Amino acid sequence: MSRLFQNRNNKLRYYLTGHAKRLYPKSLLRLDLDRLQQSIKDFDEQNMYERLNYCHKINTPFELDDSAHRLKDISNKHGVYSLDLMEYTRFFPQEYKLSYLFGDITHVPSVPAVTKSRPVADSDNSILMKFDKVRHFYMVKNDIKFKDKKNKLIWRGAVCQPHRVSFMERFFNKPDLINVGDFNKGQNAVNEEWRVPFASIKDQLEYKFILSIEGNDVATSTKWIMSSNSLLFMTKPKFETWLMEGKLIPNYHYVLVKDDYSNLEDKINHYIDNTDEAEEIINNASQYMEKFKNKKSEDWLHLKILERYFKLSGQVE
Question: I need a surface site. Which of 31, 136, 256, 259 has the fewest CB within 10 A?
């Protein structure tokens, strides 16, 4: 059990804390965004509003439809999603209405709605919030130095989607520099030969290069890789979350590989020979991740997103 907690956020602790917030008397809650802003050390107004405008791209009034629910009617049966949403909606009048989509969302809703994920392109109605953060926003804290890691690339994931199947057909047990495998827990594996023993985050961090492959929407691993001393390899993101994957700069925050992975081995060899370039990208990724570690800034952004939503939907007098 302790080994598990070393490699992921503690979900039990998250549930206990989340439900405690849900039970906190709403009459004692005060929404004071100005005071919250003043409490944020080195508050960068331009940067914060750029993030706000990126996550909530709509800036003109809109009408709600039947998909909107009163805040007090949002069910807690959706686990971490409803807890993540409730953490901030509890500060607003519970008669206000909100449209939301939980889960791996890859389409754009017909009316503005808060979501965990969205397509990078043409996604104005998808308003990003930090949903399922206990799973997606694990940050590596104690990592070994890049130079002390193995000169190989690793990938572990569930091989279900066609693009992951194609990748495994090409790279499983073939190149010496690439260690990939399927740890799908389901009974119906695409290819039983691809099954490998579970590799924890700590195990994967022994490698200099870690590949991130999108699943149903984004790849969960992208966040923790970017917070580590390993070099992130991935194709250009098609979907994004609170991480704002669409703002990541290829070969600056991560190593860009072609969609068919035809240049993957060449990229690995290049960064084995050019460690300074690799460490510069790792440093850029680490700096990018810093913004997500400030709890007060994250709170301010979520509350501003909801405030803008309620204003533009005509619910604030």
Answer: 259
